[in-house]
Amino acid sequence: MSNSLFRKKSITNLLQDAQSGITDDHGVGGLKKVLNVKDLTMMGIAAVIGAGIFSTIGQAAYDGGPGVIFLFLITAVTCGFTALCYAEFASRVPVAGSAYTYSYVTFGEMTAWIIGWALILEYSIGNIVVAISWSSYFNNVLHGVGISLPSWLITDYKTAKATFETAMAAGTDTSLMAWAQAPTIGGLRVIMNIPAFVIVVLVTILAYVGIRESKRSANFMVGLKIVVLLVVVAIGVFYINTDNWTPFLPNQFEGVLKGVSAVFFAYIGFDAISTTAEECANPQRDLPRGMIYSLIICTVIYVIVTLVITGMVHYSEFNHVADPLAYVFEKINMEKIGYVISISAVVAATSVILVFQIGQPRIWMSMSRDGLLPKRFSKVHPKFQTPTFSTILTGVIVGVPALFIDSGIVTDLTSIGTLFAFVLVCGGVLLLPKVEDKATKKFNLPYINGRIIVPVLMIAFCILFKDRIVTDFANLGNEGYEEVLFIIFLVLATAITVLTALKKLSLIPVLGMLCCLYLMIEIPAKSWVVFFGWMAFGLTIYFLYGYKNSRLAKKAVAA
């Protein structure tokens, strides 16, 4: 059984299926090949420049001060290592499915399923959070033109109840609150986030009718976002007070690392580019370029904008500020600029939802092609040439929870799922068979022998964190979850370092694995419990359906 759990797909068969556009037992139609490097770069920017820069950047700046730019750089470097590994895979395996497909050809079926299930967590939960954020910004925009929606139609049940109870305890007026105004049906108050639901429905329709229409919309929204951010920087630089940059690291590096989940959540969208491989005119050339270009552009934007807003307003004022870019202009009495920024935030969040709603169905389509999900998931519309059932189901899974779910959902779960996928993508590159004729490839991951560099970096890491290492090992058996995760990281990092030295492994994928593993342990432990629960649920589905219906399993039986 162990062999069947890790059965692998061959790259040759994957390419044959993609070129034909049809698998005879699944009835899969081909997708439109309309994306070029500019479109892919725009899609990457659309996914990365979204809720992160318009909302979570504020809390990250509060925790880390102006020095939070180091976290953006660290995250960008980590994503850069991963992007190069994605690019290597995209050049070798230019088909839809992203990390799921890449894991199938390197680690085997069960690992591929786990990654596919983790990506569902990344895209779905991530999009729910972005949709709720979109609703908040949209409501602010409506207020600016004198329109006020009923309060019970723009929030969720749990938040409305908690806000009402807090106000009651404080003795403040509750008559205008959502909980007080909401109608009741059968004794249950009707409270839902209608704008969040509506935007998911509209974006799902756009993703359904075609990739060409989706890319045009994404390109337009990206252009608008960049123009607005350039305006923010161009005006903001004249209001920078360099005294606000002192101290640069007010809470030391520990404060900077508090923003790991928020900052990494801002970056995760770049891997959605790889899900569109079958819709690229030249995937082997353009996918790697699109990933790397978008990552570089977004990092530059994040660093510059962070320096500007922390120079305009002291970092200590950003605690619980949901709209930091609009906030800094309100502080300097430029409310109109702040209002324009709120409008651009709505556009930014819309583009993120669009890219994720495009990515998720294509992962399901790939899993269905392999027999791990029912055939309906891989059905392609004869006219629009998009995954029909998968796109609609994605809209339902994101839209319905966005109506009711707690708006305080953290981004930790999304970050764990993404980092987990990144670790396996980097590790999978090390398992790819060597290509004898590199001239046939459009992208080649540079080989740098990590035999010396990785051990040196590991020693430097141990010296830097020696106090934490000594404390954790001195208290073995009495540690909290965070300390246990740190010790597990040390064990894994040591093992990877030894293997690198012995087998002369390539430096870039090894550093990608180590960086992603470290960022994972900085995510609060409580989110790990939910993550493992989600993985257990996914494995149950795999063993009940996917294991026996896998195309590779059927081929093995036939053989």
Explained architecture:
The protein is mainly α. The protein has 3 domains: 2-19 and 44-149 and 194-431, Up-down Bundle (Amino acid/polyamine transporter I); 157-189, no CATH class; 446-558, no CATH class. 69% of the residues lie in helices and 1% in strands. The protein has a two-stranded antiparallel ribbon with strand order 1-2. Helix 21 packs antiparallel against helix 22. The longest helix has 36 residues, at 109-144. It is globular and about 70 Å long. The two termini are 16 Å apart. Keywords: Membrane, Transmembrane, Transmembrane helix, Transport. This is Amino acid transporter. It is found in: Membrane.
Considering the chains and any ligands shown, give keywords for the structure.
559 residues, mainly alpha, Amino acid/polyamine transporter I, 3 domains, two-stranded antiparallel ribbon, 24 helices, globular
Radius of gyration over alpha carbons? Answer: 24 Å
Strand order across the largest sheet: 1-2
Measured between the Cα atoms of the first and last residue, the distance is 16 Å
DSSP strand content: under 5%
Query: What is the number of E strands?
Result: 2
Unreliable stretches: 21-29
Oligomer: single chain
CATH class descriptor of the largest domain: Mainly Alpha
**How many individual domains?**
3
Q: What is the CATH topology descriptor of the largest domain?
A: Amino acid/polyamine transporter I
Q: Return the structural class.
A: mainly alpha
Helix content: 55-70%
Q: Total helix count?
A: 24
Mean residue pLDDT: 79
Order of helices and strands: HHHHHHHHHEEHHHHHHHHHHHHHHH
Largest sheet, in brief, is: 2 strands, antiparallel
Give the overall silhouette: globular
CATH architecture level-2 label of the largest domain: Up-down Bundle
Q: CATH H level of the largest domain: which superfamily?
A: Amino acid/polyamine transporter I
